[in-house]
Design a protein that fits this description.
This protein has one domain. It contains 20 helices and four strands. The protein has a two-stranded antiparallel sheet with strand order 1-2.
Length: about 475
């Protein structure tokens, strides 16, 4: 294909140009608060335009930059999830940036650059591009984690994230170098062709290191140690972003790496992903039970949810891919809704994040409590809410692949997880109201919470069209076109 063909990468080129121009524009806008407001609004517009360009120019399978970068309906689906999550976070961030003393123009700009890295990572068709996208995603995240400079907890969160992120990048880079050394190529197709005759012991070791590096990015156990502290220490609006967009991008990379590049040798990675899935589900469920802080609970909840997604990946069959795509879609909506509720919690103008602060929540905030109950029931996997179908398809794929024990462990972990989700519902509806919370006044945040709750509650009616659109992307998951 033509090495100068840039059409599949039009969306990324636009986003890179827009982010760079906004950096220059922000330097000339005074005061800082006005610059922050302007950057946030323009950034949301840039993400919307990027989404339109992604659909317009990325839906047709193609390669760019000499087969280093690819586009397909599958990558478009995942990029839209990332763009939607990032756009909503920026949309609801306005009052919280001021409250957390991070009302600076660089917040929106860092998110733009991080999203650009995620999109490059999703479309990467070469190990070098993969690593470039991963680091472009990660570096802005380290900064915004520690953006609340007058907070010791935020600084600690940023430092922990940076140090452990550097460790994971080293593991990944070492794995990439081994895979390159033992296969003789960096392009996904070349590596898959080299592995078609089987993986050498050196290549298998490289594959394990690669998976370990990516497992850190999705906070899969036992590479989850950064997650609770970073979620708790970062500003809540930053935590919301961490819980959504980076997880989608990293899990997409995981999918393309295992089913595509390493597709000829599933035996070399399947056992590793099974162990990651089991540890993530169990550790996530047990860790969340002991939490008293909402953001730490959501951190362990996200670890468990990544475990359920890994169950679908571990099946190593096509239905596992569609299960992952359904799960990630409902996960994005649920995470947006839950963090929308968490962001609305305050007492006398001071944000509160303890689980105990939700006691009697239904009496003072009936609509917010009803939405939170829907999200909790969905995440627990209770039918007919959206979360049930995500888990159902993941476990079904595992059973179809003969991994019955893995599916059973998943069901048991889901039952354990129901305990801490139902505990929140019990506090909201059964416990007595002790100290009422402030009435949420952010109409945009309230609208986002309501729409998210409706999507989760009525997901059964959206499942058919979603599955049809996913089925249309299935031919493009192979390594040739992603």
């Amino acid at each position: 294909m033509d090495a100068l063909n840039l059409t599949p990468a039009i969306a990324e080129i636009f986003l890179a140009g827009a982010a760079t121009l906004l950096v220059l524009l922000a330097a000339f806008v005074e005061p800082e608060v006005q610059a922050s407001r302007l950057m946030r609004k323009i950034s949301i517009g840039a993400l919307v335009v990027t989404g339109a360009l992604t659909v317009s120019y990325g839906s047709v399978p193609g390669m760019a930059f000499g087969n280093l970068f690819m586009s397909s309906p599958f990558t478009v689906y995942m990029k839209l999830l990332v763009l939607a999550g990032a756009s909503v976070v920026l949309l609801i961030s306005r009052p919280h940036l001021k409250a957390d003393n991070i009302n600076k123009p660089e917040f929106a700009l860092l998110i733009l650059f991080s999203v650009l890295g995620m999109m490059v990572m999703i479309s990467a068709n070469d190990l070098m591009v993969l690593y470039m996208g991963l680091e472009l995603q990660s570096l802005p995240l380290y900064v915004i984690a520690a953006m609340q400079r007058d907070s010791l907890r935020s600084s600690e969160a940023g430092l922990k994230y940076f140090l452990l992120g550097a460790l994971s990048s080293g593991l990944l880079l070492y794995g990439l170098s081994l895979v390159y050394g033992f296969t003789g190529g960096t392009n996904y197709a070349d590596i898959a062709g080299s592995l078609s005759g089987g993986a050498s012991p050196g290549a298998v070791i490289g594959i394990v290191f690669m998976i370990a590096g990516i497992a850190f990015k999705i906070s899969a156990a036992p590479f989850h140690m950064w997650t609770p502290d970073v979620y708790e220490g970062s500003p809540t609006i930053v935590t919301a972003f961490f819980a959504i967009a980076p997880k989608i991008a990293a899990m997409t990379l995981f999918l393309r790496m295992t089913y595509g590049m390493l597709g000829p040798v599933p035996e070399s990675w399947q056992q590793v992903t099974i162990m990651l899935a089991v540890l993530s589900m169990v550790i996530g469920a047990l860790g969340a039970i002991m939490q008293t802080e909402l953001k730490r609970l959501m951190a362990y909840s996200s670890i468990a949810h990544m475990g359920y997604v890994l169950v679908g990946i571990s099946s190593a069959i096509p239905s596992g891919i569609s299960a992952v795509m359904v799960y990630l879609a409902i996960y994005v909506v649920s995470a947006i809704g839950v963090f929308g509720v968490i962001l609305s919690l305050s007492r006398e103008g001071v944000p509160v994040h303890r689980i105990a602060d939700l006691k009697g929540f239904s009496r003072s905030h009936p609509m917010h409590a009803a939405c939170m109950m829907i999200f909790m029931f969905s995440m627990a996997g209770i039918p007919p809410l959206g979360g049930f179908f995500g888990k159902w398809f993941a476990f079904l794929a595992a059973v179809e692949a003969g991994l019955v024990v893995l599916a059973v462990i998943g069901v048991l972990a889901s039952v354990m997880g129901a305990f801490y989700y139902l505990r929140i519902v019990k506090m909201m509806y059964i416990d007595e109201l002790e100290n009422p919370l402030d009435v949420p006044s952010d109409s945009v945040n309230n609208l986002v919470i309501g729409i998210s709750a409706l999507i989760v509650a009525l997901f059964i009616f959206l499942l058919g069209p979603l599955r049809d659109s996913i089925a249309a992307t299935m031919p493009y998951i192979v390594f040739v076109l992603g």
